[in-house]
Amino acid sequence: MSMKRVDRDLGRFRQIVRGKIKKDLRKYMSQGEMIGRQGKRFVSIPVPQIDIPQFRYGARQGGGVGQGDGDVGDPIAQGDGQTGQGQAGSEPGQHVLEVDVSLEELAAILGEELQLPNIQPKGKKNIVSEKDKYSGIRRTGPNSLRHFKRTYREALRRQIAAGDYDEGNPVVVPIRDDMRYRSWKETMLPESNAVIIYMMDVSGSMGTEQKELVRITAFWIETWLRSQYKEIDIRYIVHDAAAKEVDQETFYHIREGGGTKISSAYKLCNRLIDERYPADEWNIYPFHFSDGDNWGGGDTRECIELLKKELLPKVNLFCYGQVRSLYGSGRFAHDLEEYLGGDERIVISEIAERDDIYDTIKDFLGKGK
Amino acid sequence: MKSTRLPPNLEAAREEIERIARDYGLDFFPIIYEVLDYRTLYETAAFGGFPTRYPHWRFGMEFDQLLKGHVWAGSTIYEMVINTNPSYAYLLEGNEDVTQKMVMAHVTGHVDFFKHNMWFAHTNRKMLDTMANHATRIQRIIDRIGYDTVEDFIDTCLSLENLIDYHSPYIRRPEAQSPKPLVGDEEPEVVEGLKVEREYMREFINPPEYLEAQRQKLEAERAKQRRFPENPQKDVLLFLMNYAPLERWQHTVLEIVRDEAYYFAPQGMTKILNEGWASYWHSTIMTQKVASAAEIVSFADLHSGVVATGGGRLNPYKLGLELLRDIEDRWNKGKFGKEYDECDDIAAKRAWDRQLGLGRQKIFEVRRLYNDVTFIDEFLTPEFVLENKLFTYRYNRDTDVYEIASREFKEIKEKLLFRLTNFGQPFIYVEDGNYNNRGELSLRHRHEGVDLKMDYARDTMRNLYKIWTRPVHLETVIDEKKRLLSFDGSDFTERRID
């Protein structure tokens, strides 16, 4: 039996879907931020599905046959325009499978999809704490953890096997051997902390579309890093010719004019790290997004000096994402590549359109650092 | 590679189960079991039970869904069996022994059904090889033509794969590629009227009205000859194979898609009965013979999972099983026939027992001769509907919910039959392959009270156009008005026809 065939088809399907996922992603992302951030831990993602069109009945007039309690007029399923809702088992396959996924699981899917390695926190910050999770069954334990259903089942099983079970008088009495208890497993949780410092160029050349790209990328980065660290601090810096720290809302919506001095942001970032996030206690992830149109050559040289001398020694990973804009020269990525390309603490990725987000995230997080 | 054979203890169980099944009168093809890890099992399931299929993304999609369903939603496939001789059945590695035994008993029921149900009589029992051949042939075409082109064409064919004649138990192969009938080759006939001996009688023997009527009749006859197919044809795929301007490789692909659609059709037509039959036997064999005392609770647990109903859904396993048990009970007690039907006394009917003991014999007959439609049509009774709490549901536009519509026997039966007839697919016929005398394709949807899903219908027409390469028309009903939908290769038009 060939193991390869379905992987080939699955790969093909994923390729097709990637175009689709991106669309879903967009729809999903604009809400995704809200679902993720505003206290609701659960999001619902559909399993991707491509429907081949056929001559087929419209769902609504159809109805069908079901089974169960209820009076005429009682609702049995919510209509949402989807076929397959509450439909009879006699129907041939309609597969809209919606799964509720928590952010952790979403991160796991992301990790699997992009084959992201787990992050190895650096140095001694790799402190691990233990947490108990009730996930198993054992034969001994305190009464407070007694598993009633399993105990009952064992007792029933024993009585039937022994011929003690009387259908007319179905009394089931558990004995010591029947008792089952919940058991727990200790799961290790990383104790180490991390900080994400987002920096974004908000000079005149960065438009709405560019910011949207940044926002989507940032969401997925956050989702992944949150799954890897217990606590995550996130700081936002915007800059044009000068840099300032802002809150999340401002970060995504601010629109400034003027020129671009990237070094201003790197300086601020460096100061932030020095003041608040000492490098031997924190895992530090600066992400910088720009269209790459920096002030004259002098500033770029200063940026490179800053990175080399100050930032790179302190961070786990420095990521530079360059979005394409109509006005930007995109020079900065080339300069970074030229002077720091060999350094594996820095990742440079270009995001021209939505399709590239996928690869960018993979570039950024694929190193497992 | 790891061995996929049954371990010795299950091999012994298999022999026991098959011996018991034979004693009960089941008769089945040899069954070859393979024990697969879940990934391989889901892979095989994605391929419709076959280890080898032609390359196509939908198998990947199927696999993705099955696997995610397994991981996130906890759904499990216990077993899979394919209709071949010998039959291949797959078990999930690591299941409890009692589960494997139940599955084997269930599989035995399925294979007996495959062998004896008349709707399977003409299926290809060497489908394992045929599927592999299909895969090889398509792979060769891909090597020659290119992956993208072939994949696109397969997508197009799959869009039409339900347009076959589900109720034809045979695949009627076209004898040859017959050319389109030529019209007007022979001398046109002329209406001459009856023979007249005496000239003065002519007016009386052949009055003008009579001649006119004759003329019209002839004209109609001719019009009928001009159109093809002569009668509406339901096997649209066959019609396309015969008459669409296909290249040879396209013809091959279309034929393969059609063959496979026909192979799977009987399984769709007998889902309720087949699952009911297999469930009947797994529960009979397990509870009466095979399950040890210690296993019976686990079995009950599993079995209740298999026949569970919930959320208002109709479970085909449960419906089939209960209906078969009902039939067995009725024929054991003689609850059928004129005398029983005409009895008005409910108490008497309930207590009715003529001690005929014909139940087993009757359900064996049912498994041989019936499909889901005839099964429900003949054996669904008002008592059964009441006891099993069946209902019909409908969509309520105002509240945007599906709600219970009725618990009336007649309506439930009608709705069930409607859902099952033609596999729950709309009836589409080729009416004319030379529409407007311009070589256009005209289809008709036989409207049964439910409209088509229009966005899908339009895209399907695009696909038909790709194959037919001339404008395509579809006569259907939209919101209770007759419409002719046309696609000319770039635009859709919709015309009222009354």
By DSSP, the count of extended strands of chain A is: 12
Mean pLDDT score of chain B: 85
| Major sheet characteristics of chain B | 5 strands, mixed
Sequence of strands across the biggest β-sheet of chain B: 6-7-8-9-10
Question: Pairing-aware structural class of the strands and helices of chain A?
Answer: alpha/beta
Please, what is the average pLDDT of chain A? 73
* Count of helical stretches of chain B: 20
> First CA to last CA of chain B: what distance?
66 Å
Oligomer: heterodimer
- Annotated CATH homologous superfamily of the domain at 191-365 in chain A: von Willebrand factor, type A domain
The top level CATH class name of the domain at 191-365 in chain A = Alpha Beta
Number of strands of chain B: 10
Can you characterise this structure?
The complex is a heterodimer of chains A (369) and B (498). Chain A is an alpha/beta fold. Among the domains of chain A are: 130-188, no CATH class; 191-365, 3-Layer(aba) Sandwich (Rossmann fold). Chain A has helices at residues 4-37, 59-62, 103-114, 148-162, 208-228, 248-253, 262-276, 297-314, 331-340, 354-365, and strands spanning 42-46, 64-67, 75-78, 98-102, 128-138, 181-190, 193-201, 231-239, 243-246, 282-290, 318-323, 346-351. Chain B is of the alpha+beta class and 498 residues long. Helices cover 52% and strands 13% of the residues of chain B. Chain B is built from 20 helices and ten strands. In chain B, helix 2 packs across helix 3 (57-73) and helix 5 crosses helix 6. Strand 2 (64-67) of chain A pairs antiparallel with strand 4 of chain B.
